[in-house]
Amino acid sequence: MRTAIEFYNISFNRLKLTSRLLGAGLWENYSGISWGRVASLTQIVMFLALHAWTGYEYRDNALEMLETQSLICTGAALMIKYFTMIRNTKPVRELTGNIETDMYVKYQEMSSEYSVVLKYGRVLYFAGHIMIGGYFGSLFIIWINPLFVYFTEGRVMLLFFCEIPYVDWTVTRGYWTTVTVQIFFYVTGTCALILVDYLCAFFTINGSLYVDILRFHLDELSELLASPGYQTKSSPAIIEQVSRKWRTCLVEHQRIVEYYNKFSDLWSMINLAQVGCSVFGICINMLIIFLTDWYAAYAILFALFIDLSVHFVLGAIIERKVDDLHISLMHFPWYLLDDRRQKEYMLLLLRAQQPSGMSIAGLTPVNYETYTQIMKMLYQVFALAMNFLK
């Protein structure tokens, strides 16, 4: 059976492998030019440029132009995410390094906190399986769509509607050239989605671990405060334990505040790009589904919807954990502390009442309420587009 540190290392190695494949360099020290990063950026720029060019070529047919733009919003979101990640390698390394040191290395099998750490190590491990399987599942559906059309209708079609200038994909050589380029686009895009979205899940799950460890220590401290040795001040050992445990709780709370603040700053623009691009991407593919019989739009729509929803689920998890921490602090027997520590508790409670968690560029929190508002806005945009096309 794997230990908590082994679960963590497997999950972290997935992220490092994806970063290495993309040349992002989040955990690697590059000297000089990173050719992997240049290749990834070149593919992203080519992806957007070819989609724009194909849309221009089919500008006279509204339905065909819609099909050419089915993935352009995803490419735009990936470009913003990728640039944000490579610009912030230092905070990413700092956050991941602190998690390993503060949690998985510190609390080993013999510690009382190990059960909490092991639970979140398993959650992190299985979340990686689910997310990677989901993204590659959508990718597989898109890949088999040309085969389905060929065997049912006898037509040859591309993986997605994106052409290369001066390459005729209706002939054999041009077709395989175009499909090869599209496969590279797909693999790079899927790896980028896994890197950014699984990294977001990675930080969210470990942030919840920070909170539950603090709640675990608050429960231990409550038991010490209620013990007769502390009540009668007859046990110096228990008094010293209370003092040490209280200092630990203060440090851990400060660490949670700093962690969520750094995480929120790092992901605020990513969330804005995700919401903006996903809304228009979902709207485009819904129009394609209603107006055409292009089956690949279903897989693209599913992937876009899941990609958008995952961020709000993770934001809601953070919000719930912060609320749980606030409830634990409210139920904490503060009245058993001495006067100096009661003042420290008041400061602790005051800071806990300030919201922490992910936001969309600092404008609104990432939670279920915001998600509902975005779904309403998406419906309005879709209705306007339908009326315009009619």
From TrEMBL:
It holds the Pfam family 7tm_6. It is found in: Cell membrane. The chain crosses the membrane at residues 123-144, 183-205, 272-291, 297-318. It is a multi-pass membrane protein. It comes from the Eukaryota. One of its GO terms (cellular component) is plasma membrane. Keywords: Cell membrane, Membrane, Olfaction, Receptor, Sensory transduction, Transducer, Transmembrane, Transmembrane helix. GO terms for biological process: signal transduction. InterPro entries: 7tm6_olfct_rcpt. One of its GO terms (molecular function) is odorant binding. PANTHER family: ODORANT RECEPTOR, ODORANT RECEPTOR 19A-RELATED. This is Uncharacterized protein.
